[in-house]
Design a protein that fits this description.
Elements (H helix, E strand, L loop, with lengths): L18 H18 L5 E5 L5 E5 L2 E5 L2 E7 L13 E7 L24
Antiparallel strand pairs: 1-2, 3-4, 4-5
Length: 116
């Protein structure tokens, strides 16, 4: 096994984020927007490796008893088919407790997914 150091002139790759990290950031921002009533431009979150990162929000809206926030996925220099996709989280303030399975929806819309 070769354990030599990488060449010094090696190009530094630009890092990106997983789809889950981006979706999680949007999901963290939406209830904060709803409860605090503040329109956010970004949201800070902690990745599983304990690194704190700030995600820019592409969208942050409060509509009566609902809030919608989104993050545009940046996959860095290793883009996948979700690179550039808008990951949206929507929450609604309700009087009854709990989440009904049919109300917990996740969907993806991107021409790069090839699902048209």
């Amino acid at each position: 096994m070769d354990k030599s150091a990488p060449p010094k002139d090696r190009k530094v790759l630009r890092t990106g984020f997983t789809t889950g990290a981006c979706a999680g950031a949007a999901a963290k921002a939406a209830p904060r927007c709803l409860v605090q009533g503040s329109m956010l431009s970004d949201i800070e979150t902690t990745l599983p490796n304990r690194t704190r990162v700030t995600f820019a929000l592409a969208r942050c809206e409060r509509l009566d008893e609902r809030a919608i926030c989104s993050v545009i996925k940046d996959a860095g220099d290793d883009p996948d088919c979700t690179h550039g996709a808008e990951l949206i989280a929507e929450v609604e303030l309700r009087t009854d407790p709990g989440i009904e399975p049919e109300e917990a929806l996740v969907w993806l819309e991107s021409p790069r997914l090839g699902w048209d």
